Amino acid sequence: MTLGRSLLRRHWRLLVRLLAIVVPFLGLAGLGLWHLYLDDALLIWFAALAALAVIAWLATLDWSGERALQEATPPTPAKPEWTPLEQQAWADLTADFEAIESSPPASIEEVRLAAMRMMETAARRLHPDASVPTARFTVPDVLRAAERGLGDLRRQMVQRVPGATAVRVSDLLAVHGHYRRHGGWLRGAWYLWRVARFGMNPPQAALQELRGVLEGGATSAAWQRVHGQFARAMAEEFARLAIDLYGRRFSVEVEQLQAEIIEAAPEAPPEVPVRVSFFGQVNAGKSSLVNALLGEVQAPVSERRTPAGETEFRLQSEGRPDLVLIDTAGLGTDVSPTAEARAASDARWVAANAWACDLVVWVASAIQPAREDDHRLLSALRIEWATHPERRTPRVLCVVTHADRLSPMREWQPPYDLDGAASGKAASIRDACRAVATDLCESDEPVVPIAMRPGTAPYNVDALWLAISEGLDAARQSALHRALFDRTRFKWGEVARQVGQGSRYLGKLMFKGVGA
């Protein structure tokens, strides 16, 4: 009793206000019920109220949150610059995205658990042999990931959240404080008004309640869908950061890499040049093909001999991609006496060439049907690429040279329609391309016939440039990944530089402390 009296003395003014508002509405409710009783309509009113309640209940079931996600969100594709292994990690996380969308996290702890689960999934896919895969990152890498993630979040808020740059946190805290102090009173007043409304006009009040139920169910379903999609978008963004983190993509800045390229070659475009290697047997026409491509570029071309006897040509011309054409030594020169020696020679060749380029142009002569060496070494390259899904695989493009020497020998009147194959020469070129595709190429790899007759313009070089251009985006991603991969290797010179800079910094701190 003492506590009740104390509360009454402290809040009697608020109680008087509530009674002044509620009593008139309660009186109206009683008068309305009395009016229905006098007109013998009270039972009809109760029956209508029950029927409307049943309809409202059924409508609520129809608009439940479980049906809000009937239309599945289409899967988000992986980033094109990712390696096959990173794309597999993204595919593994798709189930987590769908679970988060259907049941969004409702607390900080649930968010933390979902984030840890996604990090573990990505880490185990990218580092399956590590004892603690989730720890396979460096401190600078995780700091860079946090910097990029927070930067992306800031940009999204500035662009899409109304008032994000004007509303302060103190304003939000003030609104929250007012809600905590007055929210209960406002809700109580609203409930009392709903009760009083039945006394004034029962049918209209019932209809308004039904409308409120329907609108509330629809709003709840729509909000749950929006909430789920937002949670999925945040989860996908976090998964991208996790895959980039465990894929060592934060170890080297792309901007830093481009700055190094510009510093090394100021006249070159600020991008990693695409390296195109030309492989094939001796006398297959590799050098002639490279010369034909160089003849199409009206610009200075730098030439460099490599220790392995290859010749590299750097192309920089307006209207053409920035390429490095590598004319390699011809195949078929290995005369190893035993199978073991040949296997060792093939292994050395694969180790030297598998990851040295971003686009492979395999040159096969149309008049040389013996392609055992081509098939053996190209298969060895494919095996090497398949065993390293953490790296991007170079694209393969097959070229059939000496098309002009096919039968009939005396006929040469290009261009030829290989689809229609109206002439004997066109049919021969088509059959040669099909034979090379069967012997060397996979289903999605193009085959381009080429002819380089002395004294005449090369045949079908434009088609070769088109095939190179179609695979250029993937080749550029491969070039960038190759450059990033080379820079993430452990280098003693970089460690020595870091030790020197750290020592100088510590020395400055020590002498500064002594001087103080």
Automatic annotation (TrEMBL):
G domain: residues covered: 275-381
Keyword list, A-Z: Membrane, Transmembrane, Transmembrane helix
Name of the protein in its database record: G domain-containing protein
Domain of life: Bacteria
InterPro entries listed in its UniProt record: GTP-bd, P-loop_NTPase
Keyword Ribonucleoprotein: no
Gene3D superfamilies: P-loop containing nucleotide triphosphate hydrolases
GO molecular function: GTP binding
Annotated TM spans: 12-36, 42-61
GO biological process per UniProt: tRNA methylation; tRNA wobble uridine modification
GO cellular component, one term: cytosol
Record-linked Pfam families: MMR_HSR1 (PF01926)
